[in-house]
Amino acid sequence: MLMRPKILLLDDEQDFLDLYREMLSQHLSCLPEVHAAASGARALALLESEQFHLLIVDLNMPKMDGLQVLSIARRKYPELRLVILTAIRDEQFRTRAYAMGVDQYWIKPESDQEMGLFMESIESLLSRESNGGFRGVQSKSLVDIVQLECLSQSSTVLKITNGMAEGRIWIQNGEVTHAEAPGMTAEPAFQRILTWKTGSFENLPADLAQPRTIFTSYQGLLLNTAQAFDEAASQINEAPTEGPAAAEAASSAPQLAELSQLKGVEFVLALSTDKNSVQDSWGLENPKPVADWMTKSLEGFNSLGERFQIGQLQQVVGTGVQRKVALAPSGKFELCVGFTSTVTADELRETMRSILTTWAS
Predict the structure, then answer these.
(1) I want to staple 162 with a disulfide (CB 3.0 to 4.6 A). Which of 199, 247, 302, 337 is the partner?
(2) How many other β-carbons are positioned within 10 Å of the β-carbon of residue 296?
(3) Mind listing the pLDDT tens digit for each residue in 185-239?
(4) How far from 335 is each of 67, 103, 120, 269, 288, CA to CA, in Å?
């Protein structure tokens, strides 16, 4: 039988303690055991006598303030999760708190949405405690997770895995500052990561040495990402308008838009191998001639492979004066990717590896 997690609330306002003790004990799925203390001395005494998993602390209190309590708790109980929940909007306090190793710094919620996000953040901290640092994202989208970390003013690096692909999002004091995905960095990488629907993620320690490459607010980033997906959907070319084939083509448009942002990519064309010949492209005004050429080229190379019995075709790369082109089968689709002529052979191979991994996911 799993042990119920134990939470200790510290605040000098009794009404606040009563309210949050009830909410935390009744609205978290792990059904924690919640204790309360109205002074720093009382909180330290409880920590000495019992083992707690999470300490939630107000900053502004008489005699012994929250930072003093947190300093002692961090030194004596290094495995204890620490959260600040305060009405103080002061960057110096926030900076000092994160320097001490606080997990999250929250301004006391003023709306139902903020309260809901706060409760989710507490759930996630307790989940990390029991699951060794990983949480599944099947029940929440990455948009929800980014909003949660930013609204809680966290400083962390989110490591997200999706099959073979791995991405990272740097968050500093509630602002997204950098992102990396296969073949991409900065905002394009952020947008690519947010297309992943399933996987897992880990909260890594904050990385203050990483140079900032993203200067848009997280709200702006999420809006730009949504707009990019909308624009991608509007670029579907010659796709059927009804039936399963239409749904499959529509779902690939955002992926093509993301792939087009990889280094050196000029265009991407995806052609279905089924009878309906679902065709989707990005960066081509007239994709049909390219699709016809791709089909004939792949048929020729596949025939050559069968003749020499060298196995299934994996990839074909052609080099011209104006551009380079790569052809590769991927599941029910065949992909044709155009690159600028300046892309090196190593860069092309690495980018195609990223494209095939992304498309398969």
Answers:
(1) 199
(2) 10
(3) 999 889 888 877 656 677 788 888 999 999 998 888 888 877 766 655 555 444 4
(4) 57, 44, 40, 6, 13
3-state secondary structure labels for all residues of 245-260: HHHHHHHHHHHHHHHC
What is the spatial distance between Cα 17 and Cα 298, in angstroms, rounded to a whole number?
Answer: 68
H/E run at residue 263 = none
Taken in order 239, 243, 248, 250, the sign of the CA dihedral is: positive
Sign of the torsion formed by the C-alpha atoms of 40, 41, 44 and 45: negative
Task: Say whether 56 sits in a helix, a strand or coil.
Answer: strand
Q: How far is CA 119 from CA 59, 124, 219, 307, 319, in A?
A: 19, 9, 21, 63, 55
Neighbour tally for 339: CB within 10 Å: 23
Q: Please, where are the H alpha helices in the chain? A: 14-27, 40-49, 66-76, 91-99, 112-131, 142-151, 186-193, 218-233, 243-259, 287-308, 345-360
Q: How far apart are CA 351 and CA 158, in angstroms?
A: 23
Q: What is the pLDDT of residues 309-360, one digit of tens each?
A: 766 677 888 888 778 999 988 777 888 898 888 888 888 888 888 888 777 6
**Burial tier of 109 (Cβ tally within 10 Å: 0-12, 13-18, 19+):** middle
| Residue of 324, 329, 332, 318 whose CA lies nearest to 356 | 329
Per-residue CA distances from 150 to 145, 162, 166, 234, 333 (Å): 9, 22, 21, 30, 38
Which residues lie below 8 Å from residue 170, measured CB to CB, with a gap of 6+? 157, 176, 177, 178, 179, 207, 210
Residue with token string 């009563």? 18
DSSP 278: -
Instruction: Return the amino acid letter for 29.
Output: S
Helix (H, G, I), strand (E, B) or coil at 238: coil
Under 8 Å between Cβ of 249 and 274: no
65, 100 Cβ separation under 8 angstroms:
no
